[in-house]
Amino acid sequence: MNPCPQARSLPALRTLAGAALLACSLGAFAADGYPSRPVTLVVPFAAGGPTDVVARAVGAAMSRSLGQSVVIENKLGAGGTLAAAYVAKAAPDGYTVLIHHNGMATAPSLYRKLPFNAQTDFEFIGQVVDVPMTLLGRKNLPANNAQELAAWLKANAAQVNLAHAGLGAVSHLCSMVLRQAVGVELQTVPYQGTAPAMTALLGGQVDVLCDQTTQTVQHIKAGTVKLYGTTTAQRIKALPEAPTLAEAGLKGVEVVVWHGVYAPKGTPKEALDKLNGALRSALKDPTVNARMAELGAEVVPESKQTPEGLRSWLKAETERYAPMIKAAGVYAD
């Protein structure tokens, strides 16, 4: 017989029943050990997109350590905030976790009404990988290097079309950083994702796009776009001949797509420890490392693969972007 009461049998005492059910579920958690069933890894973006590709590679490797499948669930909408809110409100039992990128740091400034608090509504598991960004121009853009690009942007500011993948996307953040570095206002053109933004650049409908290597390396190597540099502090393995923008004379444009894994607040420490251990193991997996290298992504240092590493990074990134977003006057309801 199940000793735990069913909430539906006490309609007048839903709160009390809910608390009893949670207590019973946590008791069962401790008795049965964790994990005893598949873990769902929620991805805020579409299947096949950059975050999804990272999640599937890392999730498959984590499943080998956990002894249970890690099932990917794509929950799209509202710039990733729908998925984050969903996980924040999920049962804190270790079976529903979130992988998200820089959007966790920018959402508090971008959205007037956010249904979660990124700092307090989650347990932190660890950072995963960094994906460098590249600054590209259409193939026939007159500027041939980063310094010429900055001069061209200033001279043609009223006519320039700067593409990005939508409000809150990292390409959108990069466009803000670029405008700040160049010192001019530029017309931005939002698209529903990186794929249509890249299609527009390839077709010459827009002039400039800042996007991550997972989407751009193939086009750079094919010579169908102009590469002005990477938005990283050092040169990257995927494009060793490409200078950083700072090297090329355009300073102040440093943006990297970083990813972190989160669980609902109150998730038991046993689950968090096992999830972190599985994440660390996955990031040492040769298959994962080979896949990330293909994408131009780089596994973060071990110091960042920790709950505290992710917590402190999220705080720093939130503080970095807040004044920039406020100055740009960009908000979503």
TrEMBL record:
Pfam families: TctC. It comes from the Bacteria. Keywords: Signal. Residues 1-30 form the signal peptide. InterPro entries: BUG (IPR005064), Bug_dom1 (IPR042100). The keyword Signal applies. Belongs to the UPF0065 (bug) family. This is Tripartite tricarboxylate transporter substrate-binding protein. It comes from Aquincola tertiaricarbonis.
